[in-house]
Amino acid sequence: MKYIEKFQYITHDIPNLTHIEQAQLACEAGAKWIQYRCLSKSDEELLKDIKAIAEICDDWGTTLIVTDHIHLNGKADIQGFHMEDMDADFIALRKLVGHDVTLGGSANTVTNLIRLAREGADYAGYGPFAETETKPNNLPLVGVETYYKAVQELKAANSQLRILAVGGIKIYDVETLMQTGIYGIAVSGAVNSADDFIEAYQNFHDAVKS
């Protein structure tokens, strides 16, 4: 099975730090997985960012995942893609990128998760757990009990899809979420908006891995 990090950090468009600066800080904090999420730039601007972040990730031994933009595969040192479209055809995407590229997807229901598992996704971001300004949407929140039930249903289906909780997660949510049996947690806003980025990252990392 592919390496999937249990604590995933996601970059975001924020006024005080560029995506490159966010990646640098995350790596300095010990990140082994960075998801570059930028939906506001041209391909030329994206590649400029991605190539700079890829160099940082290479220096630190960090996996680089790009949100969407799968057409950029092969144009920079990208290890994988996270597709936010819950209707994305992962069978077709896998044929497009091959088996070495990591593919993750977003899910809001167990039905979404089961389809991702069936179509060969390597992991799923399941949420939103709580209200978040990072990725505004009208999807229903996924409660703790729902995470537990999702894990049980996938086990019953003999699925090895790794589920990560995502969406508005705070440090005090981590212990309860991990007790549901999920694989890990993905975070953006709680780290990006913290007074001390590195300390916030490390607190989450330690809580997830404990």
TrEMBL record:
Q: Which InterPro entries match?
A: Aldolase_TIM, ThiamineP_synth_sf, ThiamineP_synth_TenI
Cross-referenced Gene3D superfamilies = Aldolase class I (3.20.20.70)
What EC number(s) has UniProt assigned to this enzyme? 2.5.1.3
Pathway(s) served: Cofactor biosynthesis; thiamine diphosphate biosynthesis
Q: A cellular component term (GO) from this record?
A: cytoplasm
* Alphabetic keyword roster: Thiamine biosynthesis, Transferase
Its recorded name reads Thiamine-phosphate pyrophosphorylase
Question: Could you tell me which species this protein originates from?
Answer: Pedobacter zeae
Q: What is the lineage of its organism?
A: Bacteria, Pseudomonadati, Bacteroidota, Sphingobacteriia, Sphingobacteriales
